[in-house]
Amino acid sequence: MAIYQITLKNCAFYARHGVFEQEAALGQRFLVDVVLDVEAGDALVSDEVEQTVHYGLAYALVEKIVTGSRRNLIEALANDVALGLTAWSPLIRRVEVAIRKPSVPIAGILDYVEVRVEHPV
């Protein structure tokens, strides 16, 4: 059985995740990457969107999870995204989620903090 990948890169969402009260009050931008290993089935030959993981619908699900319930940890958020995607489509064989938080409340100079979670199915 063939496997192919679908990647959603640098999806930007505004949300209120974080441990501190000001993060909940102010919110900030989060950047999300998703890599899906998808069972090919008939999609590569049929050329029919119904035979694959529709990446527009996958994006909408990621957006709903990221902008929905507040989490203290981006680790928990990444895990929720991964679990939501694997539960959503039986064609997904592995999902990797990276969440970047550019505005971290620490005393230091850095571009962002990133957490990655991987779930094989």
UniProtKB/TrEMBL annotation:
Write down the EC number: 4.1.2.25
Instruction: Please give the catalytic activity noted in the UniProt record.
Output: 7,8-dihydroneopterin = 6-hydroxymethyl-7,8-dihydropterin + glycolaldehyde
Boundaries of every Dihydroneopterin aldolase/epimerase domain copy: 6-119
Enzyme class label: lyase
Provide the leader sequence positions: none
Q: Which Gene3D superfamilies match?
A: 3.30.1130.10
Gene Ontology BP annotations? folic acid biosynthetic process; tetrahydrofolate biosynthetic process
Q: Which domain of life is it from?
A: Bacteria
Instruction: List the InterPro entries.
Output: Dihydroneopterin_aldolase, FolB_dom, GTP-CH-I_C/QueF
Task: Report one GO cellular component.
Answer: cytoplasm
Pathway it acts in? Cofactor biosynthesis; tetrahydrofolate biosynthesis; 2-amino-4-hydroxy-6-hydroxymethyl-7,8-dihydropteridine diphosphate from 7,8-dihydroneopterin triphosphate: step 3/4
The molecular function terms in GO held by this entry are: dihydroneopterin aldolase activity
Protein keywords = Folate biosynthesis, Lyase
**Protein family according to the UniProt entry:** Belongs to the DHNA family.
Query: What is the purpose of this protein?
Result: Catalyzes the conversion of 7,8-dihydroneopterin to 6-hydroxymethyl-7,8-dihydropterin.
Protein name listed in UniProt: 7,8-dihydroneopterin aldolase
Q: Which gene encodes it?
A: folB
